[in-house]
Amino acid sequence: MSTGFPYKLIATDLDGTLLRSDESVSPRTRAALTAATEAGAAHIVVTGRSAPWTRHILDDLGYEGLAVCAQGAQVYDAGEHRLLTSVTLDRQLAGVALAKIESEVGPLYLAASRDGLDGDVLVGPGYAVTGKLPSTPFTDASDLWSAPLNKIYIQHPTLTDDELAEEARQAAGGFVGVAMAGAGIVELLPLGLSKATGLSLAARRLGLKAADTIAFGDMPNDIAMFAWAAHSVAMANAHDELKAVADEVTASNEEDGIAVVLERLLA
Known about the structure:
Blueprint lengths: L8 E4 L1 H5 L8 H12 L3 E5 L4 H11 L4 E4 L4 E4 L4 E5 L4 H15 L3 E6 L6 E3 L12 E2 L3 H4 L4 E7 L5 H12 L3 E7 L2 E6 L4 H11 L7 E5 L5 H6 L2 E4 L5 H6 L2 E2 L7 H10 L1
Parallel strand pairs: 1-2, 1-12, 2-3, 7-8, 12-13, 13-14
Antiparallel strand pairs: 3-4, 4-5, 6-7, 6-9, 9-11, 10-11
């Protein structure tokens, strides 16, 4: 079936991109995505959030497709509430990485995302969780390492997110991947993992490839996805690092930036 829509796959980040600040998707953006899927395109959500922190949003949206979660570590079937793939962080390497980073910048505030569809997010003393996401406090550091993890979150009392991410890369980039995913969200990931890794796996399941893909995002953790996709669109509210590598910049997440582009392509 030939369609008037030039891409077979639409990949959208969630926070700051598809979602408005109140975690809703605007009626206009929903309508544009529906029109694009009716024209033959598939939609894949690609988020830094792990599956337990993504499920409720996808359920609220009535989204039943594939979602790439945890910066590419998880491919999740939203319709079946099932994890299809999951990559975990080597805990020994992560421990070495943390020690190396702390030797450079001093003590960090820590949180960690446990693997699995019901994996807890453990939050240590001093770590500030953004939003109202469910989390479990821990005080004993050994709790952090007691079960498989897909990522560790780090915060610093004085460094900015960009400074902390850069220090972490310099100190431990040979051991872990480092992603800056939003305000207060710097993450340590399995080395080599990115949203592009997970998106390529999810796309392959649908028989689609990079050349078929338009991607939308707002943060440096979307850079790899932008490099992978045929066409990349940064939101007006995006981080400067992402805008610098985007093919175009659209309106903000509050102003239907995804819909603006999809409507133009559908026309």
